[in-house]
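Q: Got a minute? One more chain.
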Amino acid sequence: MLRTRTTRLPAALAVACATAVVAATAAVGAVPARAADRDGQVFTIGDARITESSGLAASQRHPGVYWTHNDSDDGPYVYAVDSQGRTVATVTLRGVEPRDVEAISLGPDGRLYVGDLGDNLGGKWPEVWIYAFAEPAELHDQTVQVTRYKVRYEDGPRDAEALMVHPVTGRAYIASKKQGGGGLYQGPEQLSPSGVNTFRRIADAPWTTDGAFSPDGTRLVLRGYFSATLYRWKDGAPSGGESLSAPFQRQGESVTFTADGRALLYGSEGKDSPVWRSALDGDRLPDSVKPLPSPTPTPTAGPDGSAPSSSGAGAPPSKKAEDDSSSAGAGDQTLGVLFLLAVAGVMFGLRRKKRDG
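A: Always. Here it is, folded:
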């Protein structure tokens, strides 16, 4: 068996080192966070009523607000939560008795579409429903009138958890949930509140628990419990399909683009469920979203056409970059000096004790 030998510092030296670190931290201050650090967990849905957050939609009317709902066993409620995870409005859908609400999407008409699509019996319900209501102009608890749309699939009943309304055409799409792959279904050009709206299969789809269009309608994302796939959307159909690294969550159920289209937000079921942010870049960005400028300017050629030297040619660093660099350097120097002083003081004390003894 391989054994590891551990070397311990004298107690006095250990205390002195810890004191030095604390003092250095207090002297220098915390390192400032950078914009890129915003990825990862961004907030937690703290409302005790929301234990099965199954859909997520970014509001265009209220910046920093997201609409969500419970899966089942809750009632006709939709919740608005802010970027701190606090519930800022509860909307009650009048006259609705939901069965298994699984998805929410915002349409170009300013209405929220709620998909009562779930079928835990594996595709036994002959029809499911979509409820639509105008996104409230003000965020407070209220009851709203809804329009109810009856939905059937051309190839028979099935389980589904993803409803996506295209932000330009207003056409509704549903992705079915099936082990080994489901289908992407397209609704009629306009949903009708009377009669039946038949959804027809137009493409294959992976195991899907939610989906969303980018704000400009040029990208579609479908997520499952442990993965996500990003598609280009052109001429009313998905193309390509690039795997994304979805966060590991206890039960990954929801996804939406941020209002600016630059990132995806992933949600999960469960009490105090976390919401994660994942930035998009390059070709993953929607067509209308331009990449952010590089933080480091690209050096340009000199007047004579020669390449810039590596000794400082090109644009000077920004004042903020200089300040950050100076702060970091000062912090390292301060920490090093205090550490050495602490070590020296302890060693001097040990030698004196030995000499006196």
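A: The first strand starts at residue 40 and ends at 45.
Q: Perfect, thanks.
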